[in-house]
Write a structure and sequence with these properties.
The protein has 14 helices and twelve strands. Strands 1, 4, 5, 6, 9 and 12 form a six-stranded parallel sheet that branches. A two-stranded parallel sheet has the order 2-3. It folds into two domains: 250 residues, TIM Barrel, CATH 3.20.20.370; 73 residues. It is globular and about 55 Å long. It starts with a helix and ends with a helix. The protein is of the alpha/beta class.
Length: 338
């Protein structure tokens, strides 16, 4: 048990969380990030992408409504001005990728609480539906009939037993390999992985109902939700040349603007780690009409200087209990760090 775990438990046990919620010790913006809402229910896709059940998400949104001003992208500039003056506590609820359950499950819950959410869309998933690489890795391993996985030395991945108990960990390790690869190498990796597992590549039918469509995006926008870009093909931007980064950013922005008939000036970085974007990315953002970009390695925005191209977000995952969520809200400087 870490020191943070001990402190969280003590605050919950002694009523300290309730005190901090009544008399908050901080001001600023706490931005949460989700991917999927609902239950995996035996899905062969990446279970780590389900951030919360509908019931958990509803409870979290009720808590935010009681304790924060929940904002959309159109309020971000004004909010940051207030934060610089050390006024107010704000929250932002964001989603990455464009999964259909964002529309079918999360959107109605947000509306029921009168809250705005921010949906960052990887436009290529909507225009040419196909499984994302993380979902395809999970599908291959969960569909494999082999009992041992042996990949070529190129990938530096040891021979691994595939059992019902080991598959979750094997998927996690394979995703770590995938993250480090350039797109062409990742294609080679997936081809070899599917061949060694005897599954073949995942079909487009697997993704037929996985992603939202443009009508759904427009409906959410008309109901007060905010829409931002998440590139076209979801690459790790820092792995690309400057020109390729510009192409991903510009094409995603233009596609969204074409469908929404309004400017799109905010982006969330695919993967969003500190090494997922670089100075070329910042230059490309400025050159292609973006004003804001959101990362994904924890933290919150306080009264210090704001980096408009590195607005921190804390990820919500299935193992985040409601006590964990309350602790993040009460003391983000401690509990919202990854």
């Amino acid at each position: 048990m870490t020191k943070r775990d001990v402190l969280r438990s003590a605050l919950a046990r002694t009523g300290g969380l309730r005190f901090l919620e009544s008399f908050p010790l901080w001001s600023g913006l706490l931005t949460f990030n989700y991917h999927r809402i609902g239950q995996p229910d035996g899905s062969p896709l990446d279970h780590a992408l389900w951030s919360a059940s509908a019931e958990e998400f509803d409870r979290q949104m009720r808590h935010l409504k009681l304790n924060f001003d929940v904002i959309g992208l159109n309020e971000l500039d004004r909010t940051l001005s207030e934060i610089r003056s050390r006024r107010g506590r704000f929250a932002m609820v964001t989603f990455d990728d464009g999964y259909r359950d964002n529309f079918e499950v999360a959107f109605p819950i947000l509306k029921s609480h009168g809250l705005s959410g921010v949906f960052f869309i990887a436009t290529g998933f909507l225009d040419h539906a196909h499984p994302a690489w993380w979902d395809e890795v999970a599908w291959i391993i969960n569909s494999a009939a082999v009992t041992e996985l042996c990949l070529s030395e190129r990938w530096n991945f040891p021979a691994t037993v595939l059992s019902a108990e080991s598959r979750v960990e094997v998927i996690r390790q394979l995703l770590a390999v995938c993250y480090r690869l350039h797109d062409d190498d990742r294609t080679d990796f997936l081809n070899e992985l599917s061949e060694r597992c005897g599954t073949g590549r995942a079909s487009e039918e697997l993704a037929a109902s996985l992603w939202m469509n443009w009508e759904m995006i427009r409906e959410m926008r008309s109901e007060g939700m905010s829409i931002g870009a998440h590139t076209v093909t979801h690459p790790v931007l820092s792995r690309l040349s400057y020109d390729d980064q510009c192409r991903e950013l510009l094409q995603s922005r233009m596609r969204l603007e074409q469908e929404l008939n309004e400017p799109v000036t905010a982006l969330s970085y695919p993967v969003g780690r500190r090494d997922s974007f670089n100075e070329d990315t910042r230059k490309a953002l400025r050159a292609n009409g973006f004003e804001w970009a959101f990362s994904y390695y924890g933290g919150h925005t306080g009264s210090d200087a704001v980096d408009e191209f590195d607005i921190p977000r804390v990820g919500i995952e299935r193992d985040v209990s409601f006590t964990d969520f309350r602790a993040m809200c009460a003391l983000p400087g401690i509990f919202a760090r990854h």
